[in-house]
Amino acid sequence: MKTRVRFAPSPTGPLHIGGLRTALFNYLYARKEKGSFILRVEDTDQNRYVDGSEDYIQKALEWCEMHPDEGPKNGGEYGPYRQSERKEIYDEYIKLLIEKGGAYYAFDSNSALSDARETAEKDGVSFKYGAKNRMSFKNSLTLGKDDVALALKEEYVVRLKVKAGETVSIYDEIRGTVQVNTDELDDKILVKSDGMPTYHFANVVDDHLMEISCVIRGEEWLPSLPLHKLIYDAYGWDTPKFMHLPLILKPSGKGKLSKRDGDKGGFPVFPLNWGEDTPGFREKGFLAEGMINYLALLGWNDGTENEFFSLTDLETKFSVTGIQKGGARFDYEKAQWVNHHKILEMNTEELTAQGQIAKLMENYPKEQHQPLVNLVKERLYTLKDLEKEIAFVEKTYPYDEKVLNKLKDKNPIVILNKIKETIEKETPNMKESLMNWAKEESIPMGALMQSFRMALVGQLSGPDLFEVCNVLGKEVSLNRIENLIQHINLRLT
Description:
By secondary structure, this protein is mainly alpha-helical. Helix content is 44%, strand content 9%. It has helices at 17-32, 53-63, 87-99, 110-122, 145-151, 199-209, 225-235, 259-265, 288-297, 311-317, 332-345, 348-353, 355-361, 366-376, 385-389, 401-407, 412-424, 430-440, 445-456, 465-472, 474-492; strands at 4-7, 36-39, 103-106, 157-160, 167-172, 176-181, 189-191, 214-218, 241-245, 248-249, 328-329. It has a three-stranded antiparallel β-sheet with strand order 3-4-7. A two-stranded parallel sheet has the order 1-2. Helix 1 links the parallel strand 1 (4-7) and strand 2. Helix 9 crosses helix 11. It starts with a strand and ends with a helix.
């Protein structure tokens, strides 16, 4: 049987990185097994539909180079790939299930159900509409044929008919066998009063008709697994394999990662920007390769100490046995560290061509673009870091007065004049020449380098000092040295 997996998000807002990781694991499994990766939009709940969500999902996948083999955008022989366009299919299959005796119409009013819940609560039990009480409600199991026909002209729902006292057993590839007694389950609604299918019904029908061989989804759907097994069994269909992925947890504390955690911690939880107030990893300066690499580490490893993978590597190395059961804690610093590694892997020409960097470089002469990027490349954890890392090119940072106080007893004027003289003469091997001079004059190397860096940059941190000098050029470097000399002289008067 050919491997076919699907990523089936609901278009209710921006795609959370937990959803993106689910898409990634589906994609990797499909590629590893030489199968198909399908995008299906589960938009049956029109009350929660948000304009722009589907397009956002598609763009997020494309940014990460996870192009669906089938989906709303590129079609396929198993479409439509939007559930809102499959209503006729669901109508057909719910009728079939009712004919098989696996489902029934229910006509109970909201007030009748509320009364039943209140009665159950008074008795200290949890209300379930199921095998033990379904015959006391108004449904097609308790009404005559004519009454059913009449009731179908009004609002109704369709419920799954769950047999009492049976054990539902199904195997999850990550968590092992899941077993539930049907007495713990209720007769779930399969079709709502507006005629639209519920998630439980639509996803089972779609997975069967689209010949999905393995369902890979988040752990939050694990409690629904027995119910879905019952729907498959009611039709007499084979069930696909199932894998329920661990949650992505908050950086600290309990619970899964939320937008609130991102707002509080100052990091994104969505791959792309959503409006003006909701940042995305891409706009925060992450490479798609960094995003993918980090997501892969959230709940999976290849059995080695290696933490750096390209998408091609992951397509080859991915395996179900590497997926952990427990939740994976989100760590933004590690995400930046992984992204930093991906930036270092890129050659300077490729890096300079990245959209965010290319836009920033518009303010500089073209011949400076690659030298500038190469100068600070090792200091970039995100692409946005470039702006602050090359800010000294326009002008020095405000002088660090604490550093100048420490230098005042180490002859900084003498040092700066020597550096100035060396640059003016365009002395070959400037670094070696200055180091030899400092040694001869018993000047601490720290004082030499700190004085030089304060002149060119204004603070002690920054890229290689002699490369900075080359990028700034002779005239700018000399002007900055003279400016610091004057600043120190003013401080001494």
